[in-house]
Amino acid sequence: MAKKPAAKKRSTNERHYSDILYEVTDQVAWATINRPRVLNAFREQTLDELIDALKSTREDPSIACAVVTGAGDKAFSAGGDFYAMKRLTWVNGAMWNDRMQGLAMTIRGLPIPVIAMVNGWCMGGGHELALWCDLVIASENAVLGQTGARVGACPTVGATQYLPRIIGERLAREMIFCARRFTAKEAVEIGLINKCVPQADLRKETLAWCETIKGHSPQTLRMTKKSLNFESDLLYASWQHGMELLAHVWGSEESLEGMNAFLAGRKPDFKKFRMRNKRELEDYLDGCAKDLNAPPSMRRKSP
């Protein structure tokens, strides 16, 4: 019987996607989130495509480094698309969380440096994407921040793990609890990113980094990246913990209030949840005082 011809593998340069642009030029892989109408917010398909594209660099050992960026001049990425995240619940949340972790582990597991080229907004999950990368270069118009507390989401897929180690515990808590934002210049000063350059020079300066990396030993880059990741790789348990916490956030009233308020351009009303919780606790304590936590036959009779 004649042997079937082996299936032809897709070339690294022959990949076609709907949500991202991908190309390999002069030994550099470029993955660009191509959703500028929503400030390059990502959905499930976007995450799948980024994972596939970046994993494909393993099929071409001539690739020296990869660059992740966003299309247009307004945003690197605004994070998760709220129209995707509003559909999530505790039941299906793993469909999102696993993709987020999958992209993070893909970036961190590649044997080549991955550069985040940040232009404009770099917020929420988009900022976590930058945190997963090895190096971050940003234009002067870039703004980096964690917005989870303002919109009822939780940055537990990288931010709570890496920010304390990059900028220190105090600033990390301020960035997350107070949704503090940093300009690119401020981000350099606190060590959140590597370099801030004029917007017009962003690609040129990124290419200069790529040229430097291309002149260095791929073996050394692979070994040292693995070694540099050692301590933060030990945080894997924290990732699992964080994803389960996040699963319980998806579909909750607070998360939907935050996202709906943002989409409607209004201020979220989180106070109503605090007041409702207060009433529920008061009812509980009142029940304890009235012996409602005992069988009816054992309760004290009211005077």
In short:
The chain is 47% helix and 14% strand. It has 14 helices and ten strands. The termini are far apart.
Structure description:
The chain is an alpha/beta fold and 303 residues long. The protein folds into two domains: 12-253, 2-enoyl-CoA Hydratase, Chain A, domain 1 (Alpha-Beta Complex); 270-303. Helix content is 47%, strand content 14%. It is built from 14 helices and ten strands. The strands form two sheets. It has a six-stranded mixed sheet with strand order 1-2-3-5-7-10, with helices on both faces. A four-stranded mixed sheet has the order 4-6-8-9. Helix 1 links the parallel strand 2 (28-33) and strand 3. Helix 3 (93-109) packs antiparallel against helix 12 (236-249).
Write the layout of secondary structure elements.
Elements: E1 20-25, E2 28-33, H1 44-55, E3 65-70, E4 75-77, H2 82-85, H3 93-109, E5 114-118, E6 121-123, H4 125-132, E7 135-139, E8 143-145, H5 148-151, H6 159-167, H7 169-177, E9 181-183, H8 184-190, E10 195-197, H9 202-214, H10 218-228, H11 230-233, H12 236-249, H13 253-264, H14 271-289
Parallel strand pairs: 2-3, 3-5, 4-6, 5-7, 6-8, 7-10
Antiparallel strand pairs: 1-2, 8-9
Helix pairs in contact: 1-3, 3-12, 6-7
